Amino acid sequence: MYTCIVGRLSTVLFVCFISLFSYAIIPPPNNAVSVSLGGASSCYRNAFAIENNVAVLAFSDNQLALNGNNRFGLGDYSSLALAGNVNTKLAAIGLSYQIAPFGNLTTQKTGIGIAKKLGENISAGIALNYHTLNSTDAYYQSTNYLTVSAGIYYKINDKLNTGFQFTNPNRSRLTSSPEEHSIALYRLGFEYAVTSDLALYTDFLQATEEPLDLNAGIEIKKEKYAIRGGFGLNQLVAIGFGWQTNTLHIDIAGSFHNQLGFSPSLNIGYAF
Amino acid sequence: MRFKSILFFLAVNVVVLAQTDNEIVNQFIERYIENTADEVDIQQFASDLLLQYENPLDLNNADATELFEARFITNFQALDIITHREKFGDFINIYELQVLETISLEDIQNILPFITLKSTNISLKNFKQIGKDGSHQILSLVEINTPKVRGSLISDTLSDRTSSHYTGSPLYNNLRYRFDYKRNISFGINMEKDAGESFLGDNNPSGYDYYSYYFAARDIGKLKALHLGDFQANFGQGLTLSTGLAFGKSSIITNSKRNFNGFGAYRSLRENAYLRGGAIALELSKATLGVFASYKNVDGNALEIDTSDQEAPIVAMSLQEDGGLHRTPSELADKDAISDFQTGFYFDYKLPFGRIGTVNYLRKLGAVLEPSYQPYNKFNFRGDEYYKNGLYYDFVYRNVNLYGEVSHSSFEHSIGQVHGALMSINKALDASLVYRNYSKSFITLQSSSFGESSNPANEEGLYLGFEARLNKEIKLLGYYDLFTSDWLRSAASAPSSGSDFWGELQYKPSRSFKAYYRFRTETKQANSEGGELKQLSQVTTQRHRIHIAYTISKGIELRNRVEWSIYDEGGYKSKGSLIYQDIIFKPFGSNLQLSGRAAYSVIEQFNNRIYSFEQVPLYDYPLFTHSFSGMRYYLLARYKVKRGLDFWFRYAISQHDEPLNSLEPNYSIGSGLNKINGNIKRTFTLQIKYQIK
What we know:
Number of strands of chain A: 16
Helix content of chain A: under 10%
Shape of chain B: globular
Order of helices and strands of chain A: HHHEEEEEEEEEEEEEEEE
Structural class of chain A: mainly beta
Oligomer: heterodimer
Number of domains of chain A: 1
Distance between the termini of chain B: 40 Å
CATH superfamily of chain A: Outer membrane protein transport protein (OMPP1/FadL/TodX)
Number of helices of chain A: 3
Distance between the termini of chain A: 40 Å
CATH class of chain A: Mainly Beta
Structural class of chain B: mainly beta
Largest sheet of chain B: 26 strands, mixed
Strand content of chain A: over 45%
Radius of gyration of chain A: 18 Å
CATH topology of chain A: Porin
Strand content of chain B: over 45%
CATH architecture of chain A: Beta Barrel
């Protein structure tokens, strides 16, 4: 009993303690669950895992989900995303599409990912994303480019999971003159299930030319309902709620930035 | 239960037998070096470890000194073995080790190749078997970096060929031969050419820039040690005389104790850190008496004050005890510039509860050392001759190991002392305590005693380390070190103080997964920038590391790390971070092994640099410094052609991020003669090892 308590307490402290050292700027979370967990979602199992850690798809249920996201109440700064995944005999396959109009610049991303279990408790995955930038602005050029991401997901034991994903390590070229490259992103995360109803999430994110960032989140589930909270200095604090039946998942979240304001996000998912 | 144990150890043996000597040695190198940022003599360390692997230690006959000296067990484990032998007598079976609290099943698996219960004494009767039973090893490493550095680009240096160009090719090469007969007889030769040094040119007509050769015999009857050629001498806690490097503060908290044991063969490529001549030590019952004499030339910037006066002494600003780069005309001018004669003796006496000894030596240099006069080095050694005398002890009483050394140096009759205790407090807790006090004029040449600074002078400090096994899965360890300097340091224009804290939580829920979180914060007083009046401010460096390693299937291991540092100098903060993914592929029974890494770092300034251990060919230096923002990749392949013949090939790339607002038309890496154009540096390494046994 004593051993059990010490072990559990140490792990909780481990996850919480490292959460104290959070700073930096990182691309915003891409769906409501991720927003509400402060961006700490490299181990979270849902259809949007194709973005956060493609390897997680191998352990996710089949799902189709839509996300609408707004940043800081600005009409021009919204995005829509559609993601789905299905498990086949060979591997899990995921698809995603995202569009974000921003003034004269519209970015679109279409992705396909594949994830496979390498054992009972480990999976690996790889995703290809095709990006389109359409610009009517004199400065920005319209361009298309391809990025690749790959991840690993490992269930250490019944309570603790870890995941690692790198995205665009070769830093695809955006423009040739001036020469600009898209960012690379490396993500290492942990999930700790304190009880069957309570889970803690932590992600370290390292983007090129940015300081290391750390996000942390907590999820409490009770039957059909879930309440989530998280923080990270790029959005300070976030909160979210979830409701689900066997087939329908609805998640809403809001993040609060101390200067830029409120950013809502909504997921509607269908499990099959 | 017993059946399960047998099955377990059968499995352990299978695993151990499946590993090669290189892998096993590499495991220990990684364990030590991963935990320290100090400079480590990797060739010497790996050679010693390989020799211990090839000649397992007899657990029942090894005395306390030999057990403490062994690299493959910690001091606490050695203490545990000694205590167990005293209580229960000799080990009947090697698997008795599992009853010791400090030795886990994984530890047993790791140390199994290094230990035995069979006596391996040698006598002169089987001396002629030496040639037949000994092993020969030839090893050579070639390394080249591209693109060429500025010093190798002749066109850049035509205007000033006298001092600002490298005289040789950019290729690095070493060639090494060694012969070993058990632990008792060995000889060998080491040759090295650094990148930029000439080979077979005017400056090195005999070929390589560095040659080292040795013959060593030990533990043959009453002959404890005989050395001819190059050798090393390390005694007590390294305060009076230590020609080697020792580990500094780290998560292996017992590294605070030195386990030096007299003369040793010199197998390193450090070009000035040896003694050259002869040494002999005889063991007479409980006493050991050893003498040595050495004459060599060392690097130093010798200056003739008045060339017309033949009687005028040669003056040197400094002595390069750890130098070795002779690439440019100015570096060549310093090569072997100062003669160095040393002689001394030691006497060591074994007691029922440990040992006590004394070491004394005299050193006469061919130049008068005169460091530039600065307030902070007012008490540094000046002169061409000195002597040091030391008294050391190492006692074991029950579960406590007391050790220490007091040393006197002739310069201003200064005193240095270090005293420590290792304590196994109970089954779950070990502790280490060290007090040191080095006077400001203590001679630091050829010393490697424990401390904050690598030079044991002008420092008083107290170190407390602990290791707590909370349960089978979780271990908590760390240390706290407080230190003060009575006199100025180069970075502090007033007496100063500081502290260093290291905490580490290790989590190992299964054999296939392990993780740790490490936190280190070091605070020192240093000169603050700006203002006419120099004053001290607090400089704090914090380091955090999270590391996980997991085996996903037989022969495939993945490792992840995220690490970040925060450097705070009087309120101004800078940050650095590193994240990486490793894959290590060692298929069971295959002759090919692969390992690789992709790492990305963002480093704001040099003080935020982060070190990481990389997989390298055996004996190569494995610690990489991430001091830039950008990617770092490497791939290492090792191929075992046949028994005894191994090849390593390594390809590494450092790709620096070009600053977005850089005003430089052509981005470059490095500075001075090491500057290269572009933002990518590539390194190719090839090593071959051939062993006949």
